[in-house]
Design goal:
The structure is a homotrimer. Chain A is an all-alpha fold. The first copy, chain A, has a single domain, classed as Membrane associated eicosanoid/glutathione metabolism-like domain (Four Helix Bundle (Hemerythrin (Met), subunit A)), CATH 1.20.120.550. In chain A, 73% of the residues lie in helices and 0% in strands. The longest helix of chain A has 31 residues. The first copy, chain A, starts with a helix and ends with a helix. Chains in contact: A-B, A-C, B-C. Chains A and C meet through α1, α2 and α3 of A and α3 and α5 of C. Chains A, B, C: Homotrimer; The trimer binds only one molecule of glutathione. Chains A, B, C: Pfam families: MAPEG. Chains A, B, C: It is a multi-pass membrane protein.
């Protein structure tokens, strides 16, 4: 695979790799945030998990907690938006865009998702969260448009 | 990365890019459908969102609505099936399949997922939705089989 | 696309393709497991689905069942971890790692997710499931680190 040895020669691909990894790691951190809230709020989804904070399994700790659910909704929103960004972004990178244009797309997306998380978990008043969501979607749409234009 | 400049030379890759983008955009549209139903049904997941339709934050609008939940289940089913299709399809494209065989896979999948959405949100009687789901899964399985045959 | 013809020449890419397909298929099987539990436990999410086990549509079968919910949580955890593994793993493969190092990453991840599913659906006592989850996350983090080191 000739692309292997030449990954280092393609600036757009290096930039894509960096920002894709950053936003995927941000998404994965939501799992730990959920676990942290489950442990501190003592609200678990599985009976066997309650033993982590209780000497014996305790059915009363298998409850729904609003803080946990908020983090989980934020995680779900990441799944629905970050993964399409990475998939579309990979195809976009292969169309050979200008480095400056590509960097603009990648950076705006990453910043929009970080602010989205802050707005979501911090319960900031709308439309802050809605705007962050829309900016991320528009970046993905713009890259999708470029791929379709190139492919058709 | 030599593959960059030659994306335009590979018919299967161009076809994959086109259909992958179409089905990813279809999946992302479910977010807007959910938002539309949340606004018209006045059923929100977050207290701060209720201000979008109410002068002050209103706890009574933080409710579960069956129409919203149906669209969300359809979106979830897309996440569970469209993303595997794109990931497996990318590896499948790299095995160098015949263009006609590849097009058959991509087109059947995209059509099956569009009908799946119609069957789900339109509450069509079973087994219409189940069949659409199965057709999509079989396409992904067929591509996965080709990848494994090539790799092993 | 020159990488097409040479997929067979790159051992790391062949290994990645194989393990990625295995773990994606494992994830997709959770859908069928959910369907099996919905049919045998007679617990459905949609009214039209109840006709699969009842002569007429039956609202009493639109219920939440703990076995179904457990399989769905396991499926969700797969979405949150398997997809990042495949995306990060693809970028990692393109950095040109040693075959032995790459195989170690891929194999440990696949094994950790299979045991995670056994621990989750089998209700095994903690921290068995938590450890399986952590091993998978650490593999993905290690690959992400390699990509960032190469790209920066």
């Amino acid at each position: 695979m000739s692309s292997l040895s030449s990954m280092k020669d393609n600036q757009v691909f290096l930039a894509f790799s960096t920002y894709a990894i950053i936003v995927i790691l941000k998404m994965m951190l939501m799992s730990f945030w959920t676990s942290y809230f489950r442990l501190t709020r003592k609200a678990f989804a599985n009976l066997e998990d309650t033993k982590l904070v209780s000497p014996t399994e305790d059915k009363k700790l298998v409850i729904v907690n609003p803080d946990v659910e908020r983090v989980r909704r934020c995680h779900q929103n990441d799944l629905e938006n970050v993964i399409p960004f990475v998939l579309v972004g990979l195809l976009y990178t292969l169309t050979g865009p200008e480095l400056s244009t590509a960097l603009l797309h990648f950076r705006v997306f990453v910043v929009s998702r970080i602010f989205h998380t802050i707005a979501y978990v911090g319960c900031l008043p709308q439309p802050s969260r809605g705007l962050c969501f829309m900016v991320g979607v528009l970046v993905t749409f713009s890259m999708a448009w470029t791929v379709l234009s190139t492919a058709l």
